[in-house]
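We emphasize that the prediction below concerns an isolated chain of 136 residues; any contacts that depend on oligomerization or on bound cofactors are therefore not represented. The input was used exactly as deposited, without trimming of termini.
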Amino acid sequence: MAAIAFDPLEYTHELEASGVPREQAEVHARAMTARFIHNFDALVTTDYLDSRFTEFESRVDKRFTEFESRMDKRFSKIDVRFNVLESRLDSKIDKLSSDMAVRFERMEGKFSRIYLMFGLTMVTATIPILQNFFDV
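Result of the prediction step, given as a token string:
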């Protein structure tokens, strides 16, 4: 970065060399020095900007970390709720599965009786036919 240098004595000599009276040149030099000092205080340097950006980044990082922490807490509560719901759903599914198994066993029993009845019906219907067939 280029440094700003102002030498009031040299400025006074340059003004005198160009024909400005000494008293007037000194007043100009003091006024210019005052302006440079005033403006130099308001000058923004890269170091200043770097420090401000670093400060800003740290504040943003802190806020993001706080936000992330709050979201983690909320998501952990949601995870707990989902786990509760999942366990309730699993228990209901298990109960329905066992109920369905019982119903299928009942249906198998009914089908077995139907097959037995059908078999008996077939036997009772075919025995007289076979008897007639062989008696003839």
